[in-house]
Amino acid sequence: MNDLTPFGRAALLAFAALLLAVPWIASGYVLSVSIICLYLAYMGQAWNLMLGFAGLLSIGHALFVGLGAYTSGYLFTKLGVPPAVGVVAAVAVAMAMGSIIGYLGFRFAIGGVYFALLTIAFSEFVRILLDHAKFLGGTEGMFLPVSQESRRGVDLVNLRGSTEMYYYVILALAAGAFLMCRALLNGRVGYYWRAIRDNPEAAEAVGVDIFRFRMYAVLLSSGMAGVAGVFYAFYYNNLFPEQVLGIERSIEVTLAPIVGGVGTLFGPIFGAFILTPMGELLTEAVEGFKQSGLIAKNVKTDGVKLMFWGLAVALIVLLKPKGLWPWVCERLRLVKPPGQRG
Amino acid sequence: MILSAEGIDLFYGDAQALDGVSIEVKEKEIVCIVGANGAGKSSLIRTIAGIEKPRAGRIQYKGADITGWPSHKVCNLGIGQVAEGRQIFPTLTVDENLEVGAYIPRGRAGKAAARERVYAMFPRLAERRNQYAGTMSGGEQQMLAIGRCLMGQPELIMFDEPSLGLAPTVVQEVFRVIGRLNEEGTTIILVEQNVAVSLALAQHAYVLENGRITLKGTGQELLANDQVRQAYMGL
Question: Does the interface ipTM go beyond 0.95?
Fold first, then answer.
């Protein structure tokens, strides 16, 4: 907090208060869009931890989400293990996969874009594997039992309850991820990550064990994505390999941090809250045009949100490559310059 | 003898960068390595630092065989390096750069004293301790690279082309700092294109050509050698 200006502090508190109040003031539709915003803010934080902090590009983060979702889903449906326990297994499986990818990548010095290709390769490999895994439903999908009663109340152990409960769960996750990343980035680990991101050779030259710190980043990020997978499974209650692990899911995760600002703490949150509502509004608007006859009913418009996201990323990369958040920060004077921090 | 390399062969794929290179460094000496671009000077430093793994040969430090050790362990023995081209961390502040320099266990103890020493040696860095390193001038970045190396409290420092691309006054400053560190007891390996100045500073020197040592002697001997004068000083 002490690097924020008074105005920045007020803005942050107002935003936090607004987030807490959403279920009381917003409609069901706004609430469900807010859940997607927070989910993408959380995942953006996890993804940004790797690229933005440690300089490791992953385009396969849906893999870790998928592993977390399928692990907890399987334990719940087949063995009756509640997600509060299953989350441990989910994180372990996601981290195990993260450590395999990290080990291969860093031990054999597969850097930059080749590392990204490695993450895609593993993600696609597991997706195809899941397509053929009959005990997990295969392409037919896995369905988590859910009833009308379970849609009311609050049962955190079984992650069953009202939409408001899911909202507060994902809000807690997003806030927790933000605070954890903030603590890490400002701590010693953060220096080492940023040093490795800035200049891995120089970091190595001063004796930083870059293998170890890159592994930390991958393990933490994949573990966080594993937790997101548990949320995904119990919020949507159905899992299909293509829908959970498809490459568009991995790309979706990268959009909020890219638009908000890679390497910034608040960028992924800011990006998620800018992009998601705009994408939803656009989809709604196109639907409206169809209803009113402005667009012919038989025109396929499924891709309109993806087109918008593509355009948004292209514009950001061209105009504000560091993302919107640093620019907003500077414009509104939310953060003190580095020399004046306490 | 504090450090010796014997018969080092290094390959990048099929290309041989070092061919049977042997050097010896005595404690508290300045040893200079002279050679043209691509002769293998940086490769030799990187091999000693543990960043490159040699195919053959042996590296010994204070009697222990350290061939093939990972770079963070080599660093922790007290072998520091200032890499070529002012390799600082641009998005970290000066202070944070120094913090990273103290990563190795031997740097952590006495970190505060080391920081004070660096700031006393480079007052410009003290003035700019909260500035992002990427926004500083080339000379200041080189001072930071040296200061960051000192945070690991090395006994031996390998400098790779420390004067490359710097203004003449800054070059003088860099050589003064190297001389001072040596007087304070630090052993120095110096790779330089500024051959006349570095040979004058060095007790021993080697000439590296196409990955092989072709000449060795005291600094004064090489300074007087016609071949060296013609090839590297244009005299």
Answer: no
